[in-house]
Write a structure and sequence with these properties.
alpha/beta, 6-stranded mixed sheet, 3 domains, 6 helices, Rossmann fold, FAD/NAD(P)-binding domain, 9 strands, 3-stranded antiparallel sheet
Length: 296
C-alpha cells in the first residue's frame, strides 16, 4: 500500500483501523443483502460481529511473488521485486530502473519494490518499460544481425549484406511521404516484405525476424505514424490514413507488390492496406488483434 493512501486513511475521522484482523464470515438475508460481518483477531483468534451492510475487499497489498522463488529474481523482505540500482547485484551495471536481477526480466507497478502503489504509477511504468524492452531486445538481436555464415560470405549475390567489417548491414532511414516523415529499417535483397509493429512498439520489435527474413527478401519495417522516430502529427490516425503512409513509402522505394505482415494495431493497418490496394499485396499475415470488417 502506498504511503499516500496510508496517510489518507489515518486522517479520515470515520475510519477505524483494526490491525491483525481478518474477515471470518458474512451474514445476511435470503435476498443476498449483507447485514453482518464477523471479524477474527489473528493474535487471539477472538471473533466479533459488526452490523455492516457494505464490504470492500482491497487486494494487491501483498505481492504474491512466491512463485519466483528459485528463478534468480531478487525480492525484498516483504516479497516485492527489487529492480535497477536497488539491487546490490546490479549496482555496477547499467541496468534499467525497471530491470530485475535477471537480465531481460522487468517488473512494473505494485509488484515492484519502491514503486508508487497507484494506478497512474503502474501506467507510467508500463509505458516506460517498453523503451527498456526495445533496448534489451536490440542488444540481444545485435549478435545475430552482425553475424554472417560461411555460405553467405561465399555467395557474391549476397555481398551487399556485408560491410567492410564483414558484418550484416541494416539501415535506418527516413522518407517524406503522405505529408509526414516516416522512419523505417531496411535490410536484405529480394522480394519485399513489410512488417508493421503493434501498439507501444516500434520497428525494433522485428529485429530478430529481420535477421532471418533478409536472407531471401528485402525487409522493410517502418515506425507507424506517431510511433518511434516517425512524425507524430495531431491527426491522421485512422487505419486507412496510416495504411496510405505505408503505401506511399512502398511506392517511394519503387515496389509495386509486397508481402505484408501486421501485428496488433499493425494488423489493422495491414488490413486497411490490403483493402485499399488489393492488387498490390501478394501475401497478407494478420497477427494477434481483432479487426473490423470496415478498414477505418
Amino acid at each position: 500500500m502506498s504511503r499516500y493512501l496510508i496517510e489518507r486513511i489515518e486522517a479520515a475521522p470515520n475510519i477505524e483501523l483494526m490491525f491483525n484482523t481478518e474477515v471470518a464470515g458474512l451474514g445476511g438475508t435470503k435476498d443476498a443483502s449483507l447485514e453482518r460481518v464477523r471479524l477474527r483477531s489473528r493474535l487471539s483468534a477472538e471473533e466479533s460481529a459488526f452490523e455492516i451492510r457494505n464490504l470492500f475487499l482491497f487486494v494487491g497489498a501483498d505481492p504474491a511473488t512466491g512463485w519466483l522463488e528459485g528463478c534468480g529474481v531478487t525480492v525484498d523482505r516483504a516479497g516485492f521485486v527489487v529492480t535497477g540500482a536497488q539491487d546490490d547485484k546490479r549496482k555496477a551495471q547499467a541496468a534499467s530502473a525497471l530491470e530485475t536481477s535477471v537480465p531481460g526480466v522487468f517488473a512494473v507497478g505494485d509488484v515492484r519494490s519502491g514503486s508508487v502503489k497507484r494506478v497512474g504509477g503502474a501506467i507510467g511504468e508500463g509505458a516506460q518499460v517498453v523503451a527498456a524492452l526495445h533496448g534489451f531486445l536490440g542488444d540481444t538481436a545485435r549478435p545475430a544481425l552482425n553475424s554472417v555464415s560461411g555460405w553467405q560470405r561465399s555467395d557474391p549475390a549476397l555481398s551487399l549484406k556485408v560491410n567492410a567489417a564483414g558484418r550484416y548491414r541494416m539501415e535506418g532511414k527516413f522518407a517524406d511521404v503522405n505529408g509526414i516523415k516516416l522512419h523505417y529499417l531496411i535490410a536484405g535483397r529480394g522480394d519485399p516484405i513489410v512488417l508493421l509493429h503493434g501498439f507501444a512498439e516500434t520497428s525494433h520489435m522485428w529485429l530478430p525476424l529481420i535477421a532471418k527474413l533478409s536472407d531471401k527478401h528485402t525487409v522493410i519495417a517502418p515506425d507507424l505514424r506517431g510511433f518511434g522516430q516517425s512524425s507524430a502529427p495531431s491527426d491522421g490516425y485512422t487505419k486507412a490514413a496510416m495504411a496510405q503512409d505505408i503505401h506511399a513509402l512502398v511506392k517511394s522505394l519503387k515496389y509495386d507488390r509486397i508481402r505484408l505482415v501486421g501485428h496488433d494495431i499493425g494488423l489493422m493497418v495491414a488490413y486497411a492496406y490490403a483493402a485499399q490496394y488489393p492488387g498490390e499485396v501478394d501475401r497478407l499475415v494478420l497477427m494477434e488483434a481483432f479487426f473490423s470488417a470496415r478498414h477505418r
